[in-house]
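Hello,

I think I submitted the zinc ion job twice by accident. Can you confirm which output corresponds to this input? Input:
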Amino acid sequence: MQERETGASAARHVRRLWSIDPTAVQRSNLHFMNRYMQLAIESALEGVRKNHGGPFGACITQNARVIAVAHNTVLRDRDCTCHAEINAIRAASKKLRCFDLSACELYSTAEPCPMCLAAVFWSRIRKIHIGVGRQVAARYGFDDARLHAEFRLPQHRRVMAIQTGVMREACQNLFAEWKSLHRDLY
Ligand SMILES: [Zn+2]
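Support: Only one job matched these inputs. Its output is below.
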């Protein structure tokens, strides 16, 4: 009896699944995606009008809930790291009281620069939604492509000078000290 009831409820569940219109699900997803991107766009516009920085906005969500919305504030804060994505990651981490944002998704009005991509990587954000690619930003003078190209060059051909091995042993000892204290890996 119990088994027959379970079977009947499974059949009802399957019928319910079949009754869902897949295009309606896609439309609904698109509706939410556009809503989150719209928040990022509005934040970017606010930043441009207040002269906080460039025309870049970002929104971070978790399970369809908006966690943080931010824009570029490099000019306002006189801080070159205050890109929209970094500001949004900082705000989301503060709100969730956690540096691990692996349950979150990021909406960015423009393709993230290498710095922001790295920040997204460290935050473990699982998906990025992008408005426009780096080519559009480049047309307006935001030449992220140069930085992307720099990272593709071998170290000796880069503009940025890098000297390795400075106080190598003392720096290496930091790892031994950390290991001896059994801290969390991050
Ligand atoms: Zn950036």
